[in-house]
Write a structure and sequence with these properties.
Layout (H helix, E strand, L loop, with lengths): L1 H63 L6 H14 L3 H23 L2 H4 L2 H34 L5 H8 L11 H4 L1
């Protein structure tokens, strides 16, 4: 009788320990997901700020005239689609289009020496450079959190807890502008 009671107590203690471990792992994964979501908001805000600046540059280049190129209109459209993107995946795709449009804007601007010498152009160019630096920093932080989270999901016993909790990989990596070219 004593032996059976000891076995039952050990089984219950093991169950409690396993349950506590399960909850701890799940809490850790939830905290990582929350950090990823929070960092996405920072990256999204950086994308939006840069998109607004690119829209301003498109308007400036469009008013300079002398070009039949659709680059200013395309850049304005890309900027608007990034600002209106409903999901991280859509925002990442829109960012890719925006960066292509920005490259075309700079090509047009280079053809207008008087435009590139204006204070308004130089100020926007500097602000866009600063915005791109912020995007790069926020993107690195976001991707690092994402890589850590996804790596955690592949480890035992985390993979079991994640599976039972319905937590899956997140594949919304944000590529660098060099990767997009």
């Amino acid at each position: 009788m004593k032996r059976a009671a000891i076995v039952i107590i050990l089984i219950l203690a093991g169950g409690v320990a396993a349950g506590a471990e399960f909850l701890g792992v799940r809490r850790n994964l939830a905290a990582q997901r929350a950090a990823i979501d929070e960092q996405w908001e920072e990256l999204s805000a950086a994308f939006d700020h840069r998109a607004e600046l690119v829209g301003n540059l498109a308007a400036l280049i469009g008013t300079a005239g002398g070009s039949e190129d659709r680059a200013p209109a395309d850049a304005s459209a890309a900027s608007g689609s990034l600002l209106a993107a409903p999901s991280p995946e859509a925002k990442i795709e829109a960012n890719s289009r925006l960066m292509n449009a920005l490259a075309r804007l700079y090509l047009i601007a280079d053809q207008h020496a008087k435009l590139t010498e204006t204070a308004a152009y130089r100020k926007l160019d500097e602000e866009i450079g600063n915005a791109e630096s912020r995007v790069a920093v926020e993107r690195r932080k976001y991707n690092d959190l994402l890589e850590h989270y996804n790596a955690q999901l592949q480890r035992f016993p985390v993979n079991i807890v994640a599976g039972l909790s319905g937590l899956r990989r997140i594949d919304a990596y944000v590529r660098t502008e060099q990767d997009l070219r």
